[in-house]
Amino acid sequence: MKLIIPMAGRGTRLRPHTLITPKPLLKVCGKYILEVIIKTLVKAAKNKITEVIFIVSEIDLTSKQKIINIVNKQKLKYSFSTQDKPLGTAHAIGCADNHLTGEIMIVFADTLFFGNIEIKEQVDSIIWTHKVQDPSNYGVVLTDENSFIVDFKEKPKVKLSDQAIIGLYYFKNGQQLSLDIKHIIKNNIKDKKEYQLTTILSNMLLRGDKMINKEVSEWLDCGTVRSLLKANKNLLNKIPKPNKNNKIIHPCFIGEKVKIINSTIGPNVSIDENTIIQDSRIENSIIGNNTIIKNSEIVSSVIGNNVHVENINNKSHLNLGDYSQIK
């Protein structure tokens, strides 16, 4: 089975952190978002995934090497396809057309999920969802009593369904998916001026394909600073809580070679490797690597890599990109 990961988006809602770093290579709980996604799916698919195709716009060599290292850890083949223009989700997948054969999984790289991902059903497609309180901000599926999908609705104003599409899909026939994408592009069939995957899914229903809905137990969006911090907090709570350091209020993730001097860390804090925290208090925040924070109190913030911060007190919602300095 092949896993296709569209990641050509610019991550504008996460700037300044995505100005030089692709969104899937931001870290939560000390791990790249992309790393968590791939590891979760490989395990859930019972090692049926053999190759990962990354759809990118442009990517620097450092980021590309990080991606390669992630797939090498899972002993997977990999390749890169290019999407030159942001023409929609279906267009992005179509950019990997030469890989659309056999069974295909597609996942968008700003979402984390857990539970009920294994593929056992003999169906043409599986759409994974999660129950939400307000479906008006999401695409949702409508199902029958056997969880077979009967319709899709994009951001419904009336609550027709609470099952929000999370960006994880399975297609049994990659060749047919390729033909469906070519059809809407050739005939210029767009939704909101883009070629959308939901258009393909709707056409599959009309054709009579069997599509089933599966609900995950957890869904963690990572598309904004607020949701990134929430995902970090959720993953930290899964870590066992040692009692060795009374300056650490768990849950926290402390990377390798981190120096903490006369400081209080936590709860809900991730600190990447080689960072120094001195005479400071950090709460509900993500701190990058090779960063120095001294004499500061930082809450609900995302601090990038190679940042130097001193004498910041009672500061909430501070977002500093890589190489920033505040002294």
Low-confidence stretches: none
* Total count of helical runs of at least 4 residues: 6
* Strand adjacency order, main sheet: 5-4-1-6-11-8-12
Taking the alpha carbons of the first and last residues, their distance comes to 51 Å
Helix content: 10-25%
The CATH homologous superfamily of the largest domain corresponds to Spore Coat Polysaccharide Biosynthesis Protein SpsA, Chain A
**Number of structural units classed as domains:** 2
Q: At the first level of CATH, what is the class of the largest domain?
A: Alpha Beta
Taken from the alpha-carbon principal axes, the silhouette is elongated
Category by helix and strand content: alpha/beta
Roughly how many Å is the radius of gyration? 21 Å
CATH topology of the largest domain: Spore Coat Polysaccharide Biosynthesis Protein SpsA, Chain A
Mean pLDDT: 87
Largest pleated sheet: 7 strands, mixed
SS elements, strand count:
27
Approximate strand percentage: 25-35%
CATH architecture of the largest domain: Alpha-Beta Complex
